Input
Amino acid sequence: MASGDGLSTAHTAPLRRATGARCTGIDPALLGVADIDWAAPWLADWRAVGEPIAQQVVAGRPQPLALTDAGRAPVRFVPQADLPSGMAYEAFIAGTAQVPTREGLHDFFNALCWMHFPLAKQQLNRLQGAEIARDGVQSQRGPVRDACTVFDENAVLIQTPDSVWQALSEHRWHDALVRQRLLWASAETRLWIFGHAALEKLVQPYPGITVHLWRVPEGVSAAALDAWLAHDLQAAKLATKPFSPLPILGVPGWWAANADPAFYDDAQVFRPRRLRKAAQKPHAESELQRPAWTASIRP
Output
């Protein structure tokens, strides 16, 4: 499986704690930037830029300052306290070009996404801002704002042949991930992780982590991906929720255990397709066998 071209800077020495990032049974609230395993395949596109910034944070530099000084985003990252009480997060970003940023993994990966996909992140912010301006901040998000949040937190972009996409969308897991495995090992299938909450969960991987796939047409290059995505993210399309779920550790080559075809036999993780009710949200494809604790999610 080929991942997208990363942001190009020289790699630095790996940064990790003695226990490594792939520890198990630890409350994710106790995990931090030092626990990121930059050698993980899902971080191939993020490592060159992210690891040096992580080293600064681990050394004690305030996270918003280290992220801003990287100079790779169209926004500045500011302490969470800079967000005025009662002001919507999206409205603050739109009005100030500043992103309130907490210490910790979730907002660290969000900032890296701003560096990697600046045009798409700006488009998502515009869409969410327009929804808030029209409807206000409701207790329940409307379909467009809901889909924007799901995309922002959990999307993975995939470029793959029709046969693989159809098998994935129909939950024919063995067909997509075993029988057509060679298509994942070639340039015919490429993945780019977008969702920062998905990356946060993957600091401590477990089989039930499920992402929302968004298809990229053949012919869109890695260099053109951000511009294409910013154009593709339109309210009308998002309202249809054109996502397809994928347990991310099922990606061939991304998890040692999936070399055994029996890995995909667990129907609690690789579930058969069910008809979606009209009112069901796109993230209703819940992650089963998830630890009792959950990472904090913020729009």
User: Anything to note?
Assistant: The mean pLDDT is 87. The chain is about 35% helix and 10% strand. The longest helix spans residues 118-135.
